Q: What sequence folds into this?
């Protein structure tokens, strides 16, 4: 099966409509996952998407659409697992919309002058990584020390990857199209 990820910015592109329609007609094992972080570049979702919950659009293609709390790791897992199980059982595509939030700008130079910092703080308080960590510690799956050690491991891994990239030669121009499927 195939999982396609896209942002809320891609929701209103014609190609999504064409793909979803064909996927339904051919009964393809596809799960469409919209990471609805409520901003596409500097535009707020309610300014460019006609419905508050884009999951309702799936019914127009004849397959189910599920919205879930994208700030809750286990809610995303349960919702995705149901959509994947359907697809694997031969029941065709599904749309999963994860309601989340874009903490940072669209790009590093984004002035973020189009939204209220208080809104960001509200969503930051629901940070899914911190929330899941609290849940794991609360259920005794992880100790605070193990969580800290894990975080230190991740930081080390990222730093090693950055160092590797910085010390590697620039890629050749003719590799530009490698691993791109069209
Ligand atoms: C096919 C295509 N159409 C339009 C654009 C211009 N564009 C770049 S980013 C963007 C919005 C992306 O929104 P989203 O996926 O929600 O990303 P986010 O701002 O959340 O990072 C658009 C319209 C593009 N890059 N490609
Ligand atoms: Mg977005």
A:
């Amino acid at each position: 099966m195939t999982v396609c990820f896209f942002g809320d910015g891609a929701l209103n592109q014609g190609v999504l409509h064409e793909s979803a329609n064909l996927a339904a007609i051919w009964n393809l094992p596809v799960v469409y996952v919209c990471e609805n972080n409520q901003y596409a570049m500097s535009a707020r979702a309610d300014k460019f998407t006609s419905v508050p919950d884009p999951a309702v659009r799936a019914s127009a293609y004849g397959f189910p659409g599920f919205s879930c709390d994208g700030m809750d790791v286990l809610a995303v897992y349960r919702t995705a697992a149901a959509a994947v199980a359907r697809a694997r059982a031969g029941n065709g595509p599904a749309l999963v919309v994860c309601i989340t939030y874009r903490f940072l700008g669209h790009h590093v130079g984004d002035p973020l002058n189009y939204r209220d910092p208080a809104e960001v703080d509200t969503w930051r308080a629901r940070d899914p990584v911190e929330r899941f960590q609290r849940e794991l510690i609360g259920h005794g799956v992880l100790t605070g020390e193990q969580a800290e050690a894990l975080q230190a491991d991740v930081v080390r891994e990222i730093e090693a990857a950055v160092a590797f990239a910085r010390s590697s030669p620039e890629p050749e121009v003719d590799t530009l199209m490698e691993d791109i499927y069209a």
